[in-house]
Amino acid sequence: MHPLEKKIQGLLRNQGLIRQGERIVIGVSGGPDSMALLHVLAALQHLLGIEIHAVYVDHGLRPHEAPAEAALVEARARSLGVEYDIRRIDVHGASAIRKVSIEHAARDLRYDALHQVARDRRAGKIAVAHTADDQAEEVLLRLIRGTARAGLAGMRSMRDGIIIRPFLTTAKEKLLAYLTDKEIPFALDSSNAARAYLRNRIRLDLLPYLRTFNPNVDETLRRTAIILQDEETVLVRLTEQVWRQVVAVDARAGGLPAFSLNLELFLGLDVALQRRIVEKLFLVLENRPDFQKISRVLDVARTGAGGARLHFSGGLRMKKEKKRLSFFYPQGKVAARGNLE
Q1: How far apart are CA 330 and CA 316, in angstroms?
Q2: Residues with Cβ < 8 Å from 304, sequence gap 6 or more?
């Protein structure tokens, strides 16, 4: 067994990323990382008692390269005896309709496609090939765009109980060595060199510059993400405990959701917990939180007069009363689907 295969076998078992008998959908672009993932999981599937299914997602962005990539993935999947699917998505159309960047639309639609295949194939997990190098890039990307503490924790080895990242602690150079050892072909995505994309500029320009200050900056960023993930787990638990003490769920006319914060208890919290409670309120009420929204709520809670109101996108309202802050939608607003407990 190759050392990389042995490492991933132990990691999958020790971290509980898969269960025996599960079907695993693998996102395979034809690039070096995902081709390594396909071959490693193919080598391990009988040892682990799993079944794998490869999926190539054509984003419609590189019509001159995508057919060759899809053919390569299909050929390798067939040679390994692995089932294969191709899914096509309209990234340009989604970007225009949703008013988001090409990068954002591509990511969302790619995961939508993988989730659909997982549902169709009754797969329990979706494996993607993010590496330790990708983790360093992701931490910097989130820092540049602006994020809370949880965002700086980067990607996790498992997300939402279905997305798994077996290579997240493995450097890309180890994957390239594996491909060389096994004589596995792969494709190179020309868009990875396009500086129009922020992630590419981070990889091609920013990280090399930071390495002039600290040659081990990639590892420093990865360690920071691990530390923040561990601390975030504790903070999430603490937030849940405080939530149960401070937040009440109120029924409103028409069955619309409403929440009230006990103002005295809320103002007695550290500001970090105040922010986390308000952020969770926005999320449960399906209203995207950001620093400005949260700050407005905290300002009114601390200094606003009784009866002060705030209006947010989507119709969400907040009202300050003598002993509480109320968050609600006016009658006629569709109820939120989030967890209200």
Answers
A1: 7
A2: 320
Greatest extent of the chain over all pairs of C-alpha atoms, in Å: 71
| C-alpha span between 144 and 139 (Å, rounded) | 9
Q: What single letter denotes the amino acid at residue 40?
A: V
Structural domains in the chain plus CATH codes: 3-227 (3.40.50.620), 252-328 (3.30.465.60)
Q: Answer yes or no: is pLDDT of 331 > 70.
A: no
Task: Give the strand pairing for 158-159 and 163-164.
Answer: antiparallel
Spatial distance between the Cα atoms of 84 and 105, rounded to a whole number of angstroms: 24
- Residue in this structure with the two tokens 């910097």, named with its chain if needed: 140
Contact (CB, 8 A) for 83 and 104: no
CA distance 293 to 86: 41
pLDDT digits (tens, 9 = 90+) for 88-134: 999 999 999 988 888 889 999 999 999 999 999 999 999 999 999 99
For the chain, report the end-to-end CA distance as a whole number of angstroms.
48
pLDDT score recorded for residue 255: 55
